[in-house]
Amino acid sequence: MIEDKEITAMSRITDILSSLEEEARKRILLWLLSREGLTTPPATIVGSSTRVKVLSGSVIDPNESKSLSDFFYSVDPQNDMERALTVAAFLQSTGGGEDLSSQEINDELKHLGYPIANITKALTRAMEVTPRLMHQTRKEGTSQQARKKYRVTHEGMKYLQGRISRQQSE
Prior knowledge:
Blueprint: H1 5-18, H2 22-35, H3 49-56, H4 68-75, H5 80-94, E1 100-101, H6 102-112, H7 119-128, E2 134-140, E3 147-152, H8 154-169
Antiparallel strand pairs: 1-3, 2-3
């Protein structure tokens, strides 16, 4: 009997996902959809009503952009702060709303060809403007070089939506 490759793949995926917590499964599925350029209604994977509101509402819908690069160029960020904010917003929206490290953000910027020499400075700038576009959610460790986690604020999402709207009207 010839084994169906799709059924084998689904069986393996089910075995792997069944050992993980719900949030981890959501992150993996969202990443896979994004990686393969597929779209799905956010509510089918993400159960949080606030997250569904952010994704499908008027703020940012990463499903309109099939990839980070599409989203990045639709925003057309002009400086390091805007570049970091753009990548963070996309990762936060497509990755299950998890807090992000500066390394995660800068790694994606490197893939896009826009590495930031001092990513912490760019993120700090986004936290210092009024209204705050990002905020630090926690610090892992006690030293100054400890790993920090960040989140894009609602105002940060609105800021990027405004940039997208301006780009589309030009």
